[in-house]
Amino acid sequence: MNVDGVQVSYLEVGTGERAVVLLHGFPLRAEMWAPQLATLSPLARIVAPDLAGFGRSDVAPEPLRHTMADYVAQVAGLLRALGLQRVVLGGLSMGGYVAFSFLRRHPELVEALVLADTRAAADAKEVADRRSAQQDQIVAEGTTALRESFLEGLLGRTTSEGRPALVRRVRGLTDHPPDAFLAALQAMKSRPDCSADLPGIEVPTLVLVGEEDRLSPPAEVRAWQEAIPGSRLAVLPRAGHLSNLEAPDDFNAAVAAFLADLPPPGSAVYPED
Fold this sequence. Notes:
Layout: E1 2-3, E2 6-7, E3 10-13, E4 19-23, H1 34-40, E5 45-49, H2 68-82, E6 87-92, H3 94-105, E7 110-116, H4 125-141, H5 144-154, H6 157-162, H7 164-172, H8 178-189, E8 205-210, H9 218-225, E9 232-236, H10 243-246, H11 248-261
């Protein structure tokens, strides 16, 4: 779909008044949500976009100047093009970073939040420095070695040691142009710290995390989750950072229960921005 002059690809299944928008992690694409698209579609209209440069979406024109605000603008433009006025916004890892920034800029468009294996805080200096080094590596030698190294952090021990088919599947989901990696790394290392926003989040919020997640450990996730009033937490067994793929049944059950508890679309009254 052409959105504000830029090609944005997305997956869409299901029908109904409620819309759920799922934002993928780094360095994957919308196809990572396949288990959710298949299972949750009877409950809502599910839309999963490819963020700029990933999947079949156009690459950011200036990757080394890309920001979270650029991803937010892309998602907001897609919602307008699809006629979606208020959505359940979900994001995993980098998708969660986008979701936090989206809520900050467009609270009127968010009915509820689903945040998986992510964090509200900005990058610590050593993490930002590592992302800069990864950008240098991509410019010098491409993405092949880096993609392989990312797998070590993305997948939990159970998956890495005993689920080779899923490891191969995830590896295939990380094949994108170098500029997609450069833009995402730039946006992540420069993203705002949203920690102070947590106590002011007024929409229903579900937080999920894999019990084997090494990038967003459950203890750290619980610490910021507890700052969101009324939020609920699901820790998923035998799953790492990609909990939606590593524990899809548990992930889907938690999201389905959360959606079932939401007021009917259009009936809830939330404070205006």
